[in-house]
Specification:
Number of helices: 16
Number of strands: 16
Structural class: alpha+beta
Shape: elongated
Distance between the termini: 54 Å
Strand order of the largest sheet: 1-5-6-11-10-9-7-8
Helix content: 40-55%
Largest sheet: 8 strands, mixed
Oligomer: single chain
């Protein structure tokens, strides 16, 4: 007899029990409904791509994190590390079948071989929206707006969205004669929240003088009112230009719809990926700052150009579902439940199983999620099951109920019971409570 194999998962990967997966699915459903309300439509792309597709526009750090291998056909392939680069390939490959501006959402797993830590895993879900084919300020604003709407839909309103524009920063670097080193400098600055200003300054000195490093730190640490900070960083960059005017236009739109208080201009937000070309942003839960950004993105006007001759401007964002879940767990606002059931029909007598199943069938046709306990076990065992599944209602049918075509509905929270109900009356009570709750 062969040895038993120890059941285990790889480091950085996880199984999800029903109560965890239900909570995640409900978040996804709410976020998806928001995306659809803005006119975004779903797509899907393969888990595996040719490595050259994924890594053509990436830095060395990304290459270290990608899961890459040679398949049985001798092809160099890799697992997608985000949903944006595959979307750029998708846009180029299907440009003749799409309409522009094209607004897509994609909610799926991605894989990165980075070191696992709190809220960060090697396999995780991203919830993306993007608009391609539009370079308008209104598209930038719409992405920022859908971010706020998505968090409001999951009852998370205490957020701050940090906004910046790479164009202004690149103009500043041009004045310092450092534009050719912008990608390296952007990646160093992007780590300021993790390693602090002194360590950032030390790393910057690898690419420039100590004097320039101090100027860069001065630039990225400006704080205050949105427009005040904008004027300050404009002065660093040589004055107003189309990039800073774009930020002004977006800010006026945020003010027009009354959500500007959730947005700050933060010059330290640069985003580490080098395909971003314009506005960039990251989102933080104010009461769980340690978890880091739970939603980020920006404008990437040249990314699809890696796979097609035409320039297709794009802007988008991604909610990191797993980090969001970790943050919600920390703040105690993620409420797990064991099933989607509204009611459990208890089996008091197996000879009445036909009636139980008829009741269940009728209730489901009226919109009630219900199941029948399959055998006449002790009632304590049946009650234990409904408790484990977080079922709010229990349905009891004795011989008299079977004869009269009625049932007893029991509220499993307060233990109150209503007897001799018709099936329709039972459904009405359950659904009314469900709508309120």
């Amino acid at each position: 007899m062969s040895e038993m194999i120890q059941p285990r998962v790889l480091k950085g990967f996880r199984d999800f029990l029903p109560q965890n997966e239900i909570a995640r699915n409900e978040l996804i459903e709410k976020i998806t409904n928001v995306y659809r309300s803005f006119g975004f439509v779903p797509i899907d792309t393969p888990v595996l791509e040719y490595t050259e597709i994924l890594l053509r526009k990436s830095n060395g750090e990304t290459e270290k994190q990608v899961f890459r291998f040679t398949d049985n056909g001798g092809r160099d392939v890799a697992m997608r590390f985000d949903l944006t680069v595959p979307f750029a390939r998708f846009t180029a490959e299907h440009k003749g079948e799409l309409y522009f501006p094209f607004k897509r959402y994609h909610i799926a797993k991605v894989w990165r071989g980075e070191k696992p830590q709190a809220g960060r895993y090697r396999e995780f879900v991203q919830c993306d929206v993007d608009i391609v084919g539009s370079d308008a300020a209104s598209s930038d604003f719409e992405i920022l707006c859908v971010m706020k709407a998505a968090f409001s839909a999951i009852d998370v309103d205490d957020i701050t969205i940090h906004v910046n524009h790479r164009g202004i920063f690149n103009r500043f670097l041009t004045l310092l004669n450092l534009l050719e080193k912008s990608e390296d400098i952007l990646r160093v600055v992007d780590k300021i929240a993790k390693i602090g200003t002194e360590n950032v300054k030390a790393e910057l000195c690898q690419y420039t003088t100590e004097e320039n490093a101090a100027k860069i730190l001065d630039y990225v640490t400006q704080k205050g009112d949105f427009l005040e900070v904008l004027e300050k960083i404009e002065s660093f960059a040589g004055g107003r230009d189309s990039d800073s005017d774009r930020l002004r236009e977006i800010y006026e739109m945020l003010k027009a719809v009354g959500i500007e208080k959730n947005y700050v201009l933060d010059p330290s937000i640069t985003r580490g990926l080098d395909y971003y070309t314009g506005i960039v942003y990251e989102t933080f839960l104010n009461d769980v700052p340690s978890i880091g950004s739970v939603c980020s993105g920006g404008r990437y006007d040249n990314l699809a150009g890696l796979y097609m001759k035409e320039k297709v401007p794009g802007v988008g964002m991604s909610i990191g579902l797993d980090r969001l879940v970790a943050a919600l767990e920390q703040r105690g606002s993620l409420h797990a439940k064991g099933s989607y059931l509204d009611a459990e029909i208890y089996c008091q007598n197996e000879s009445n199983m036909l009636y139980y199943q008829k009741v269940a069938f009728a209730l489901r046709s009226m919109g009630v999620n219900v199941e029948v306990f399959p055998s006449a076990k002790k009632m304590a065992q049946q009650y234990a099951l409904t408790t484990a599944k977080s079922v709010p209602w229990g349905i009891l049918c004795d011989d008299k109920d079977v004869e009269n075509g009625t049932l007893t509905l029991k509220n499993l929270k307060n233990r109150e019971a209503t007897e001799s109900l018709s099936i329709a009356s039972c459904a009405k009570l359950i659904l009314a409570e469900k709508q309120c709750g």
